Amino acid sequence: MPLTVGGSAAYNIANLAGAALAAAALGVPPPLIAAVFARFGAALADNPGRMMRFERGGVRLLVDYAHNAAGLRGLLGVAEHLRAGRGRLGLLLGHAGNRQDAEIEQLARVAAEFHPALVVVKENEAHLRGREPGEIPRIIRAALLREGLPEAALPIRISELEAVHCALEWAQPGDVLALPVHSAAARADVLAMLQTYVPRP
């Protein structure tokens, strides 16, 4: 089942179980449920913005909405499964401005649990929601520094597209990039960028 990514996306296993129960209760035949689960998620258009997977020149990329701690932990769990002890983990990290500082800092703590080699801290410029420009990235970066990540591994970029570009420039074959992109417009630009992306050797 593509949505489970080899069993590593435990949250999608739970989602599929719930969907199967609901479909069965509505009278959908079990063989049809199984057939849909066997293919759904294999095409990018199946679930835009959720667990969109790419491989370019030996770099594996995950584009996902992942806007809270639970979602980020799930995404990074899949990234670790794909990395399988080889290569490095890189990711983007940002948040909307209408969240408490503690919630934003929790996101940073979850990221640090996975020992990333790069965290591109991004401004979510379309969702400042009362915050000053640069305020959210400063909170995230400070939390990551407290968790022991080196300053050199925490570049800040002022837009989602610039953050993705920074991560792509850094990546080498064998690396895995987790790219939480929150803006639909930015996601379209990112997907276009990935069509021609070739990692440096």
What would your notes on this structure say?
The chain has helices at residues 10-25, 30-39, 69-83, 101-113, 135-146, 160-170, 184-195, and strands at residues 52-56, 59-64, 89-93, 118-122, 156-157, 176-180. The protein is of the alpha/beta class and 201 residues long. The chain has two domains: 1-45, no CATH class; 48-195, Alpha-Beta Complex (Protein-Tyrosine Phosphatase, Chain A).
Main-sheet strand order equals: 1-2-6-3-4-5
Radius of gyration: 17 Å
Instruction: Based on the coordinates given, report the CATH architecture of the largest domain.
Output: Alpha-Beta Complex
Low-confidence stretches: none
Count of structural domains: 2
The N- to C-terminal Cα distance equals: 32 Å
Oligomer: single chain
CATH topology annotation of the largest domain: Protein-Tyrosine Phosphatase, Chain A
Overall shape: it is globular
Largest sheet: 6 strands, mixed
User: Counting H and I runs of at least 4 residues, what is the number of helices?
Assistant: 7
Please identify the top-level CATH class of the largest domain: Alpha Beta
Question: Helical proportion?
Answer: 40-55%
Chart the SSEs and their pairings:
Elements: H1 10-25, H2 30-39, E1 52-56, E2 59-64, H3 69-83, E3 89-93, H4 101-113, E4 118-122, H5 135-146, E5 156-157, H6 160-170, E6 176-180, H7 184-195
Helix pairs in contact: 1-2, 3-4, 4-5
